[in-house]
Amino acid sequence: MSTVYTQDERARLAPETARAVFRSGTVEPTSGWSHGYAQANMISVPEDWAYDVLLFAQRNRKPCPVLDVTDAGASGTVLATGADLRTDLPKYRVWEGGELVDEPTDVLGHWRKDLVTFLIGCSFTFEFALTTAGIPLRHVEQGRNVSMYVTNRQCRPARRLHGPMVVSMRHVPAHLVETATRVSGLMPEVHGAPVHVGAPIKLGIQDLAKPDFGDPVRPLRGDVPVFWACGVTPQAALMASRPPFAITHAPGHMFVTDRPDSEYRLGAQ
Amino acid sequence: MSTVYTQDERARLAPETARAVFRSGTVEPTSGWSHGYAQANMISVPEDWAYDVLLFAQRNRKPCPVLDVTDAGASGTVLATGADLRTDLPKYRVWEGGELVDEPTDVLGHWRKDLVTFLIGCSFTFEFALTTAGIPLRHVEQGRNVSMYVTNRQCRPARRLHGPMVVSMRHVPAHLVETATRVSGLMPEVHGAPVHVGAPIKLGIQDLAKPDFGDPVRPLRGDVPVFWACGVTPQAALMASRPPFAITHAPGHMFVTDRPDSEYRLGAQ
Hints:
2 copies of one chain form a homodimer.
Chain A: H1 7-12, H2 15-23, E1 37-46, H3 50-59, E2 66-69, E3 92-96, E4 99-102, E5 115-121, H4 127-132, H5 138-141, E6 147-154, E7 164-173, H6 177-185, E8 196-197, E9 223-229, H7 233-241, E10 245-249, E11 255-260
Antiparallel strand pairs in A: 1-5, 1-10, 1-11, 2-5, 3-4, 3-10, 6-7, 7-9, 8-9
């Protein structure tokens, strides 16, 4: 399945089709794929680290809203019927002692029976709502991954896990910042409202053109940088806290779920 | 501090004063105390059961919204400066192997260094908002604890923990049910909108006059029973799953936090 999809075709793909495309080896950031469906960050750790991760997420809900936690060894999730978490993401990262050791397109060869997988809300989930509200997505327009940065804000530690908050950044036309804040604020389980608008240095970010994860994205005249808490935060915690083993998604290469994004809008529960 | 407070005086007590009153041995349900401040259910388990409890809560967010988790052995919480979780609730329950073995007014003599404490959102938190919206609270009017019932709805299990959902019930005048639903629905971290309105038998409840926890409360003419998910659900899981040891609050005898209830209203984060 090496078909190249246009932007419009990607947006309209059913989630299970998108997952099949990635399972077949297509490697692309998932922003703009399967509009209207929630996407998720993934982190798998040995079971004896699972409580640390879940507690870290509970204590840092803004960057780490938990959508599902699997039983140890399970490769499926309640978020997507028939999905296989070991193959259905476009790209993974494998970590040993906090070091990135591999970046494969599936993790069948790395899987372990003691792995507990956390699926964490992703801001790509509210991008469809942003688009619908008339907000342009510069990274999608430019065919790039969203820009992500490690900030100077420390998360509340949980047992052996500690680390800084990571943010995603979108350039938003100044007159639409209020709309972007309101629309994303209605979806707190996928990071909600921005954590900062305007001055990267306030988050300790020296140069917007040099993201720590993802690609640099060019602003247009009149754009303002808007920063949202990001589900790559647990990866920064892995790097800082060095558990013996972990698997994550590669930043921007998310798990596309079957859950309509409307389920994560305020008042839906 | 054996002062008897009127209903109005209780409502106006600062949270730290309410906690001091309970610390001094006053034993009363906390509904109607310290209006405008969040109240919390409490469950403390040995550290090797902590992941089970946190995962159970994550998988059953409606009855078990987690407001804070302490480090093992800690008796304080970020929810209330200077509070002592071992003394500041009006009444506790001590559990061994799923059996209730004691119901003391403090747990200093039962405390263990390996206990992890979970503070879970409580529907008493939205009662001030209900009152403000003109909804009478029959249990407060009648000077009784709220009625709580074990339902026929099973929670999603988590490792060694399983059990049925518990609900609290309030009699609401029929023409105000919509208002009660809307007002509580705005506060999902303290159980949010009702899980059922009208027919107790739909939840497997045979007789409203015989609650499983709390007191029976008389309806007035035109009242309809409205059921909310309840933070006593983890106690039902203790009874069903029989961990070796646990401490909880006594139903209706909650931890009064320093957090304004407005923090748990939608859009506050």
